[in-house]
């Protein structure tokens, strides 16, 4: 499931905002003030930009707190979707097999 910010802000804007932050953070008194100014200039909330920066940092440097990188998160979502589909298929096959080998055909929808 995509977050609202993924739909609201194009990836190019996110990448540009992160680049501007990384290139200019030393020109500000603090990281927070840099985030506030840059976020207001690009038209997003400072917490949104802060989250983008954190995710970028995880993607580049990893994280000891076992948070996933973007590519790992996407792969996990793909594997979870595949797992759901396989479980669903297995359930259908189990039901079909039980109908085939069942002595009472009425339980399988036959009249």
From TrEMBL:
<dbReference type="InterPro" id="IPR036388">
    <property type="entry name" value="WH-like_DNA-bd_sf"/>
</dbReference>
<comment type="similarity">
    <text>Belongs to the transposase 8 family.</text>
</comment>
<dbReference type="Pfam" id="PF01527">
    <property type="entry name" value="HTH_Tnp_1"/>
</dbReference>
<feature type="coiled-coil region">
    <location>
        <begin position="69"/>
        <end position="96"/>
    </location>
</feature>
<protein>
    <submittedName>
        <fullName>Transposase IS3/IS911 family protein</fullName>
    </submittedName>
</protein>
<dbReference type="GO" id="GO:0004803">
    <property type="term" value="F:transposase activity"/>
</dbReference>
<dbReference type="InterPro" id="IPR009057">
    <property type="entry name" value="Homeodomain-like_sf"/>
</dbReference>
<keyword id="KW-0175">Coiled coil</keyword>
<dbReference type="GO" id="GO:0006313">
    <property type="term" value="P:DNA transposition"/>
</dbReference>
<dbReference type="InterPro" id="IPR002514">
    <property type="entry name" value="Transposase_8"/>
</dbReference>
<dbReference type="GO" id="GO:0003677">
    <property type="term" value="F:DNA binding"/>
</dbReference>
């Amino acid at each position: 499931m995509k977050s609202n910010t993924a739909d609201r802000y194009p990836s190019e804007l996110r990448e540009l905002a992160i680049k501007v932050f990384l290139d200019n953070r030393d020109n500000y008194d603090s990281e927070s003030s840099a985030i506030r100014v840059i976020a207001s200039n690009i038209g997003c909330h400072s917490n949104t930009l802060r989250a983008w920066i954190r995710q970028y940092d995880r993607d580049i440097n990893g994280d000891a707190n076992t948070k996933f990188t973007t590519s790992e998160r996407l792969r996990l979502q793909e594997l979870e979707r595949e797992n759901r589909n396989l479980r669903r298929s297995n359930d259908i096959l189990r039901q079909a097999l039980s109908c085939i080998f069942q002595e009472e055909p009425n339980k399988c929808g036959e009249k």
